[in-house]
Amino acid sequence: MNQPLAGFAPAPVTARMENHGDHMLKVAMQTGSDLFARVGSMVAYEGFVQYEPNPPAVRQIARDWMTGEGAPLMKCSGDGLLYLADYGANVVVINLDGDGISVNATNLLAFDAHLSWGVERVKGLAKFAGQGLWNTRISGQGWVALTSRGTPIVVDCGGGEDETYVDPDALVAWSPNLKVKGKRSFKAQSLIGRGSGEAYQMAFSGQGIVVVQPSEDSTDRLRIRG
């Protein structure tokens, strides 16, 4: 019975965070190297791992989460292997090397607890969306895991003059040093009478990357925030 299932067995640990297949994250847990992870994302673990929902560090940041963009997080600590997933979404692992990334809170799966992080307003979009768009910014030296509804594309903006345009509902993350501005247009649906047809895109320029998923988030990311 074990032979047909051998190909699905856990592989030897090679990094702090790595993919186990396309839809699961494997984290090598060690005492003193805590992890923040989305509440409810644990699917299995080996060894001794403890969980603390809504830890003090998260409560402190949550005071700024008056916009509803905050992701519910739990603190994971201990020794062993931890497996995380989010309803079968693809998992993208990023190793930050002193740089940062701005992440849509709904796409944030896990990150090293020692990283600097917080919620910030995305500049350049207020006139398009009331109070604008809020994201979670993470920076430092460590690991971050994101989710994507399908296999994502990573667009290198390249630092040229051309802008990269993305539907905000398909946006996962981007380099925080990129310049961002909003653009209005009209969707093709307006030609056949479905809805108002008005749409927003986010325009990125500068040196950095943009991560885009092949599925639009069901929530309206550009609604007015209080």
Provide a quick synopsis of the model:
With 226 residues, this protein is mainly beta.
Description:
The protein has 226 residues and is mostly beta strands. It has one domain: Mitochondrial biogenesis AIM24 (Double-stranded beta-helix, 4-Layer Sandwich). It is built from 2 helices and 15 strands. The chain has helices at residues 2-5, 56-62, and strands spanning 17-19, 25-29, 35-38, 42-53, 73-84, 90-103, 108-112, 116-122, 133-148, 153-156, 164-166, 171-174, 179-186, 198-205, 209-212. Strands 1, 2, 3, 4, 5, 6, 7, 8, 9, 10, 12 and 15 form a 12-stranded antiparallel beta sheet that branches. Strands 11-14-13 form a 3-stranded antiparallel beta sheet, with no helix packed on it. It holds the Pfam family AIM24. InterPro entries: AIM24, AIM24_sf, Trp_RNA-bd_attenuator-like_dom. This is AIM24 family protein.
Write the layout of secondary structure elements.
Elements: H1 2-5, E1 17-19, E2 25-29, E3 35-38, E4 42-53, H2 56-62, E5 73-84, E6 90-103, E7 108-112, E8 116-122, E9 133-148, E10 153-156, E11 164-166, E12 171-174, E13 179-186, E14 198-205, E15 209-212
Antiparallel strand pairs: 1-2, 2-5, 3-5, 3-7, 4-5, 6-9, 6-12, 7-9, 8-9, 10-15, 11-14, 12-15, 13-14
Protein name: AIM24 family protein
Pfam family, one: AIM24
InterPro entries: AIM24, AIM24_sf, Trp_RNA-bd_attenuator-like_dom
